[in-house]
């Protein structure tokens, strides 16, 4: 155990922030830490947009939920899969890279690069005793988000990261049992064992909710997931991704 591990294990999403902006030094350090993340084959296929304009933050907050903490925080970062610069590389080097750039593989590379960078940013922020919350809700309406953020071809806003000084620290949610997540030497897919692990986790989550809400809520994780996944969500995504020049083959 060390300070880094303690900080990682103490993670929880923060959705209420003090009315205090991050300093330029804090923002620069968080971005520098994001850039220090691993990147596939040195491609660096991501970009980060910092949103400080109050009107833009308000619009993004409305599109994301509405979620007030997207507007009211210390700083809002939007992480994007980005192959725009690689189009520019093709021009500079007088070569056609479209087959590679438009492949499903490069789409995955860009998404993974952005996620790795974002998690480094999140850990850097938390190490400063700041709170963070990932915002997937910006994908509710990417065409409008793209207009607000002036997103060019070959770029896709994937998620936002709100960072700030926590007003209230929420409880830490129990994660799935490690036996359900970690497999040795191959995927352990015994159906009954898998279901048994999920049933045990359901009991843990139900107790967590019951305690947190003083008995007002005690649903299970599988009930929650079945309800959420049973609703169609963001079904326009394939068309948008292809329109932006990704994942055509």
What characteristics describe this protein?
249 residues; 11 helices; 46% helix; FMN; 12% strand; Nitroreductase-like; globular; four-stranded antiparallel beta sheet; alpha+beta
Describe the structure.
Helix 2 (24-35) crosses helix 6 (104-127). The protein starts with a helix and ends in a 6-residue tail after the last helix. The chain has helices spanning 3-9, 24-35, 54-63, 84-92, 98-101, 104-127, 142-148, 178-181, 191-212, 221-229, 237-243; strands spanning 46-51, 75-82, 131-135, 155-164. The longest helix has 24 residues, at 104-127. Strands 1-2-4-3 form a four-stranded antiparallel beta sheet, sandwiched between helices. It contains eleven helices and four strands, in the order ααβαβαααβαβαααα. It is an alpha+beta fold and 249 residues long.
Largest sheet features: 4 strands, antiparallel
**β content, as a range?**
5-15%
Mean pLDDT: 96
Give the low-confidence spans.
none
Looking at the structure, what is the overall shape? globular
User: What pattern of helices and strands is seen along the backbone?
Assistant: HHEHEHHHEHEHHHH
Question: What is the count of DSSP helices, taking H or I runs of 4+ residues?
Answer: 11
Report the structural category.
Answer: alpha+beta
Domain Nitroreductase: 9-165
Organism: Peribacillus butanolivorans
Protein name: Oxygen-insensitive NADPH nitroreductase
Family: Belongs to the flavin oxidoreductase frp family.
């Amino acid at each position: 155990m060390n300070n880094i591990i303690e900080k990682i294990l103490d993670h929880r999403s923060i959705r209420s922030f003090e009315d205090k902006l991050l300093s330029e030094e804090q923002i620069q350090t968080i971005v520098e830490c994001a850039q220090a993340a691993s990147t596939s084959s040195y491609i660096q296929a991501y970009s980060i947009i910092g949103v400080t304009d109050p009107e833009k933050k308000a619009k993004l907050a409305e599109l994301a939920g509405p979620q007030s903490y997207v507007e009211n925080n210390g700083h809002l970062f939007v992480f994007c899969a980005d192959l725009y610069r690689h189009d520019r590389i093709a021009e500079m080097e007088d070569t056609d890279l479209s087959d590679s750039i438009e492949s499903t593989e490069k789409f995955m590379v860009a998404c993974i690069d952005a996620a790795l960078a974002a998690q480094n940013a999140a850990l850097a922020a938390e190490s400063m005793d700041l709170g963070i919350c990932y915002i997937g809700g910006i994908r509710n309406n990417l065409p409008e988000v793209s207009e607000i953020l002036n997103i060019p071809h070959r770029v896709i806003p994937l998620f936002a990261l709100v960072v700030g000084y926590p007003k209230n620290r929420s409880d830490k949610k129990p994660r799935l049992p490690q036996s359900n997540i970690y497999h040795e030497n191959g995927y352990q897919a015994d159906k009954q064992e898998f279901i048994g692990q999920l049933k045990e986790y359901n009991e843990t989550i139900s107790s967590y909710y019951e305690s947190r809400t003083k008995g007002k809520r005690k649903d299970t994780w599988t009930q929650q997931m079945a309800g959420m996944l049973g609703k169609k969500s963001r079904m326009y995504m394939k068309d948008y991704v292809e329109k932006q020049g990704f994942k055509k083959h």
